[in-house]
TrEMBL record:
Catalyzes a trans-dehydration via an enolate intermediate. Homododecamer. The active site is at 22 (proton acceptor), 98 (proton donor). The lineage of its organism: Bacteria, Bacillati, Actinomycetota, Actinomycetes, Kitasatosporales. It comes from Streptomyces chryseus. InterPro entries: DHquinase_II, DHquinase_II_CS, DHquinase_II_sf. It catalyses: 3-dehydroquinate = 3-dehydroshikimate + H2O. Belongs to the type-II 3-dehydroquinase family. This is 3-dehydroquinate dehydratase. Substrate binds at residues 72, 85, 99-100, 109. Its EC number is 4.2.1.10.
Amino acid sequence: SAILLLNGPNLGILGQREPEVYGTDSLADIAQAVREEVAGPDWKVVSIQHDSEGDLVRAVHDNYDTVGAIVNPGALMVAGWSLRDALANYPRPWVEVHLSNVWAREQWRHESVLAPLASGVVVGLGALGYRLGARALLALAARESA
Ligand code: DQA
C-alpha cells in the first residue's frame, strides 16, 4: 500500500525557505521521516511537490490508489478551490499539515478552504507534523479495512 505525500507551492525549497519559520529539514528529509514512520515491507510513500495548483490537482487524480494522503497545500490553503475540489473526490482519508502555527501568524493564513474535508489537521509542529500525519493515516486506514 502507498501513502501520498503531497506538498504545494514553495515547499520544494524547504530547508532554505525562511528556516526560522519552517525549520531546516528539506522536503527529502521529511519524505524520509514519513517513510520511517510507515516502515514495513508493504508500505511505500509517494512524495510529490508542485508549485502550481493544476499539477497538484492532477497528482490527486493520478493517485486514487493510495490508502491516504498527507497534504501541505502551502498558501493554497486559503483559496485553492480547484485543489479543494480535487480532494473532495479523493476516495481515501487525508490529513492537512502545516509546519508553522498558522494561527499565530498573519490573519490571512487563518482560513483553510481544504480543512473541512480533511480527517484532521496538524499545525505548528514543524516536520514532526508530517510524522504525526502519517501515524494518523495508518490508524485511519486500519479502521477502514477493519
Ligand atoms: C505553510 C503555511 C502557509 O501559510 C504558507 O503559505 C506555506 C507553508 C506551513 O507549512 O506552515 O507555504 O503551509
